[in-house]
Each structure stands twice: as structure tokens, then as C-alpha cells.
Amino acid sequence: MHKNRIFLFSGLILALSIAAFISPFTSKDPDGLDRVSQDLKFEEKATEKPPTKQLPFANIFEEYSFKAVPDQKVSTALAGITGTLVVFGLAWGVGKLTVRKSEPKQK
User: Fold this and answer.
1) Which of 90, 89, 62, 92 lies closest to 78 in space, CA to CA?
2) CA 67, CA 82: separation in Å to the nearest integer?
3) 23 with 31: CB under 8 angstroms?
């Protein structure tokens, strides 16, 4: 059990380090669907107010950064850390809900 926690938290620390120190230096070029929409010339068909912009967190985040933090690199690092912690928390919670506790062995 102790080895599992060390492994788990070591992975979390590694993921947070990547989010904090490497993500601010990623390429600013369009990625994923943005790039495909540009290549195939359908980006102008995007809606002005997509559904994702109407969600509550859209007031906090803009693309891959916090709106309230003026320094772009710091903002991206904080957003990466936040995203990593949210995904970790969700995975941890789902794991706790779905894994049955094993009963203690009787002698």
C-alpha cells in the first residue's frame, strides 16, 4: 500500500512539474481542430458564441491560460497546474467510488 502511494504521488509531482515548467514554452501555433479547420478552410463557419464559452469556467479561462493573470507564461503554467489537479482529483474520486475495499483476511 505504501509503495502505491509513493508511486502515485511521484507521478502527480512529475505531471505538475511538466504542467508548471514545460507548458509555458509550448508552441503558439494552432493545434488539433483549429489547425484542421484552417487547412480545410472551414474555420469561418465557427459559431460566434460556442456552447463552451457559455459555461461558468469560461469566465476564468481563455484558451490555455487564466484571464486574470497578465503574464502569459505564468498564466499558462497556473492553468496547466489547475487542469492537472482537476484531472487527478476526478480520477482519484472515480477510483475511490469504483474500487471495492477488500475485507481483512481472517486467520
Assistant:
1) 62
2) 13
3) no
CA 95 to CA 78: how far, in whole Å?
25
Q: Are 73 and 24 in contact (CB under 8 A)?
A: yes
| The three grid cell numbers given for residue 82, joined into one nine-digit string | 489547475
Per-domain residue ranges for the chain? 2-97
CB-based contacts of 65, cutoff 8 Å, min separation 6: 72, 75, 76, 78, 79
pLDDT value of residue 11 = 93
Q: In degrees rounded to 5, what are phi and psi of residue 90?
A: -65, -45
Between 2-21 and 72-98, two packed helices, what is the crossing angle to 10 degrees?
A: 160
Q: What is the value of pTM for the model shown?
A: 0.72
Question: Hey, which residues does 66 pair with through a beta bridge?
Answer: 61
